[in-house]
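ok so I'm stuck.
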Amino acid sequence: MTKIKVQYEFTMHCLSEILYEYMASAEGLAEWFADEAVERGDDFYFSWNGGMEEKATLIRYKPESFVRFRWEEDEGSKYFFEMTIVIDEITDDLSLNITDFCEEDDKEENRLYWENLIENLRLKLGAT
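replied:
not stuck anymore, here's the structure
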């Protein structure tokens, strides 16, 4: 099935260096993205309490800026999910921008999923 690109922007109140650690390391991702995360080279293995386990590969990154992952099920496709730190040049406000792909019928569910994840991240960072 064809997926569509979706993008979200979340204002964050924290240092970009700390936020990047929560985006790019297994330890950081296990704090908010999954119940458990294991990193083996460029492969990240995520698991959740429900027993679900998924593998994602880190396909691009720029330190202190962004990470891009591709789920194993999306191998060989253009689909990915990316987390990008954006700092406004004028105000110095920091945002976390999310790019993801989902099926058209799942747009609302995808948005709620990311909102919930980012709320968890904000709580861990004390950035609410």
